[in-house]
Amino acid sequence: MTTLLIILQFIIVVVICIAVLLQKSSSIGLGAYSGSNESLFGAKGPAGFLAKFTFFMGIVLIANTIALSYIYNTSSGDSLAEKITVKNNSSIPNPPMSIVPSVPNNNENNITK
Q: What is the pLDDT of residues 69-82, one digit of tens each?
């Protein structure tokens, strides 16, 4: 169910982006390419239809986002970090003491005046 809603979320976002890019703006933008569609959408052109369609798709996007957040919050109370188990790896041996350098003791070397 979650996978279906995530795929639907991506599809809705792409559709909203296309609808916004097709709308006419003050600087024309990509709305200039939809000029031949005026007879399909009526006398006012696609402006009214695309504005209503964008508003409707925005509402669907918000509803889908709320549904996704509800499903994620109720599906599992544990986070992935809480499910990690730490295993001790005893196959790695400790290095021999002859390889480990010794650290000089600074307390013996201090000269007090």
A: 999 888 766 667 77
Among 2-6, 9-13, 33-37, name the one with the lowest average pLDDT: 33-37
pLDDT value, residue 65: 95
Both tokens of residue 28?
A: 């024309």
Domain ranges of the chain: 2-23+39-75
Tokens (6 digits) for 54? 């964008």
Task: Classify 36 as helix, strand or coil.
Answer: helix
For residues 25 and 56, give the distance between their C-alpha atoms in angstroms, rounded to a whole number.
Answer: 19
Q: Which residue has the tokens 């696609």?
A: 46
pTM of the model: 0.52
Angstrom distances, CA of residue 61 to CA of 6, 45, 46, 47, 107: 11, 25, 22, 21, 69
Token pair for residue 65?
């986002």
